[in-house]
Amino acid sequence: MKASRTGPAVIVLLGALYFVLPLVATFEFSLSMLRSIWSFEAYRVVFADPQFRTTFSFSVIAALATIVLGALLVVPTAYWVRLRFAKLRPLVEFITLLPLVIPPIVLVFGYIRLYNSSSWLPFTNSAGGTNLLLVFGYVVLSLPYMFRAVDTGMAAIDIRTLTEAAESLGAKRSTILFRVILPNVRAAVLSGAFLTFAIVIGEFVLASLLNRPAFGPYLALIGANRAYEPAALAMIAFAITWACMGLLQVFASGPPGRPRSGRSLFKLARRAAR
Amino acid sequence: MGAAIDAGTAGAAHNDTDAAPSRRPARSFAWLGLAPFFGFAILFLIGPTLYLVAGAFQDRNGAFTFDNILGLFTPQIMAAYAISIQVSLASAALGALIGFFLAHAIVHGRLPAWIRPTVVTFSGVASNFAGIPLAFAFLATLGRLGLVTLFLKEAAGVNIYALGFNLLSFWGLTITYLYFQIPLMVLIVTPALDGLKGEWREAASVLGATRWQYWRMVALPVLAPSILGCFLLLFANSFGAIATAYALTGSSLNIVPILLYAQIRGDVLYNPNLGYALAFGMIVITGCSNLLYLWLRSRAERWQR
Which residue(s) pair with B58 in the sheet? Predict the structure, then answer.
């Protein structure tokens, strides 16, 4: 029953080939905009495009707003559930996992019908309202990752003792949340934040159907009309994803969270902008 | 955002009284701390979904009807569901199979120590590298002018497009989806493979089992719920995916999310309530596979302690 090492090595090599080839091909393609020489011309064109800059900054701001709003929603909830409503935890966890069950396109379809200009809460009446609705939608998409990260982080610290210690020193609840609990789950919030950033930055369906000038719809537009710029944009997107995941691992493996919290997040890490 | 903070302080007011057990009735305000979360979930997650589900069973005037659900059984919509399910099945089955072998190779393959963390980290990145950029990458690889296409034509004399391959087709989409399906399988199944205890293999060996018998009678029965569960997760994962397919094929491959996208954009089915039914069908399919996944995972965890 002795296993040989050749089989596994061949499998890993073939896997590496499948995963590296598209990257090599995309990079090569992105360099060949000028005839017969390799150049970074496609990248220069992309970076010089004012539409690239506006859509990219729009998506960066949307991602940051999503992270702040998501953290403000998830941290107090996870804290309060652990402290007072342990019985409700399965329900809250179930709700945070629902965005993995309901496809994003279905979710945004519901938004469009429920919050259109003739409804009781006409979000889509103004650009600002639609932006807000978009960010709310992104908070929903990031819920599974954010809640799981923060909840795992809270499991690693003794929130009850911390809360009682702060209370006996006369701290108000908001002080406890923002100056005691939040700093202690900072690593967890950050790892959730990087995953959220990776998801939001290239998101297509919500932004496109809500008609927002985000990076995702811009990518689709360029893809339909240009030859070499899409390859350059794909390399840029890959670099951003890589950076987010790298930072996620750095923060997920650092104290005080459990080292495994990053892994379990990876498991959930998916459904990005598909 | 303001609501979350308000609710936090509302909870604080409550907790001050909690210190004195005699004033327990104040407990009734503690739920306010959860109000922002449940309010948000109802407004932006559950409400919109239920609205669509309800709409799937209503006619234009709001009366109850099964017509929309029956309306799904037309050739056009059934074809969309069929191709969606086929692509999801193929990419989930291949992703699960290849991902399993890859995970097994890095866990039990006795390869150099750096291989495993490298593969796992890359899987974390690749499982998130999806959407439109992934479509661009595969167009540059296997498109008509892609690197691999040209290489095969020039170096090996094989024109894959003349042989009937097309990236903008069922197999093209499946191969592209595998780029995030395989890494996802590796990430989920690696812990399960870690749970295969060396003692079991040794015990089987001592009892005279062959390698095949060990796999068939020990390892696979233990791993089966994990593998099947991952398969269902991968299935739901690709079933709801749209951006990659949209950027890759435009509307030439009529999968359900793309049909729904067109319906939302311009009511291509000429019946808004039929659109709700289309969305309802998607929820039912991804919901069923996710529920089955959760059930299988709870069974699989018994062996991972």
Answer: B64
Q: In the prediction, which pLDDT does B16 show?
A: 42
pTM over 0.95: no
CA distance A206 to A210: 6
Contacts of A266 in chain B (CB under 8 A): 120, 123-124, 127, 187
- Collect all residues with Cβ–Cβ distance below 8 Å to A5 and sequence separation of at least 6: B109, B110, B111
The answer to whether residue A139 is domain-embedded is yes
Tokens of B185: 């399988």
A255 pLDDT above the threshold of 50: no
Asked whether residue A27 is domain-assigned, the answer is no
For residue A110, the model assigns a pLDDT of 92
The total number of structural domains that make up chain A:
1
CATH 1.10.3720.10 fits B71-304, yes or no: yes
- Say whether B282 and A233 touch across the interface (CB within 8 A): no
Q: Does residue A253 surpass a pLDDT of 70?
A: no
Chain B neighbors of A203, CB-CB under 8 A: 131, 243
Pairs of CB atoms within 8 A across A/B: 313
Restricting to B residues 242-271, those with a Cβ less than 8 Å away from any Cβ of A are 242-244, 246-247, 250, 257, 260-261, 264-265
The ipTM (two decimal places) reads 0.84
- Contact call for residues A266 and A198 (beta carbons, < 8 A): no
In-domain check, residue A196: yes
Q: How deeply is B29 buried, as exposed, middle or buried, from its count of CB atoms within 10 A (0-12, 13-18, 19+)?
A: middle
Which residues on A lie below 8 Å from B139 (Cβ)? 230
Q: What is the pLDDT of residue A172?
A: 86
Report the CATH number that the domain containing residue A212 is assigned in CATH. Answer: 1.10.3720.10
Domain ranges of chain B: 2-56, 71-304
Q: Do A25 and B141 touch (CB under 8 A)?
A: yes
Residue A41 lies in a domain: no
Give CA angle at A206 (A204, A209), nearest 5°: 95
Q: Chain B residues with CB inside 8 Å of A73's CB?
A: 4, 36-37, 40
Tell me which chain A residue has its CA closest to the CA of residue B140.
A26
Q: Which domain holds residue A257?
A: 50-268
| Cβ <8 Å between B283 and A18 | no
- CB atoms B261 and A269 under 8 Å: no
Contacts of A177 in chain B (CB under 8 A): 8
Of A101, A140, A220, the CB nearest to B44: A140
